[in-house]
Specification:
316 residues; alpha+beta; 3-stranded antiparallel β-sheet; 8 helices; 8 strands; 20% strand
Amino acid sequence: MEPIIIVLIILVVLVFIALMKTVQVIPQASAAIVERFGRYTRTLNAGLNIVVPFIDSIRNRIDLREQVVPFPPQPVITQDNLVVNIDTVIYYQVTDARAATYEVSSFIQAIEQLTVTTLRNIIGGMDLERTLTSREEINAALRGVLDEATGKWGIRVNRVELKAIEPPTSIQDSMEKQMRADRDKRAAILTAEGIRQSQILTAEGEKQSAILRAEGEAKAAALRAEGEAQAIRTVFESIHAGDPDEKLLSYQYLQMLPKIAEGDANKLWIVPSEIGDALKGLSGAVGNFGPMGPPRPGSTQKPTKETPRREQPPID
């Protein structure tokens, strides 16, 4: 009985192993390559699949989702003979599991080497400044070359990104100095523009102030002249209305002479010729009234005789 039990146990184990090899469950977004006696037979898609045990074998399981592969920095020489290190990131997707398995031994390594070669060809035709400012152009050119080359491998390159472009340390220092100089230049220009605008506004303000001041002074002078003219006109009309005689005018003329002689700067005083006529008129008026003034009406007082004046000797 014991040999029969052992044989039964072995048969059960073989049946279990055969069932496990017969039923293949493929996850979603995956594929499996089936070979029969070492030759490609079919591709298993997602779900439950039945294969012939011990005859069919699973060669490779491939993820059909989009993959992201970063590549290490690669030294690239630009057109102006500068070495820059460029990090790249590749977004790819397997579209044909059979081609990805049999057309290339390792499609990841093939994509990496093709990326480095293509990148050196593209960067070799650009100078450093264009390399730093043309990332979109480099990405598009690199993606076009990779997508065309990897199509026969069952790979579709969806996107290529330059993660970093690192120029040499000396070039970085020079670029920083240049950027600092440009910033200082722009700051100086803005400061000069501010000062210029401030001076323009100040000059405009002073100009407007001077114009307004001149207009005010002109109006004030016009008003003063008009007032003086009105005052002269009023005095002239009053004089004509009072009808003054020659004696009154002579008296007023003599009153103005001391005011004319006032002032410390007057060293020489010229007596005008009209003063004689004024004195004659004034003396005539005084002689008519006498020393006591004109006689009042009804008074019997007689005018006294004027005492002759003694002539004063001339002063040397």
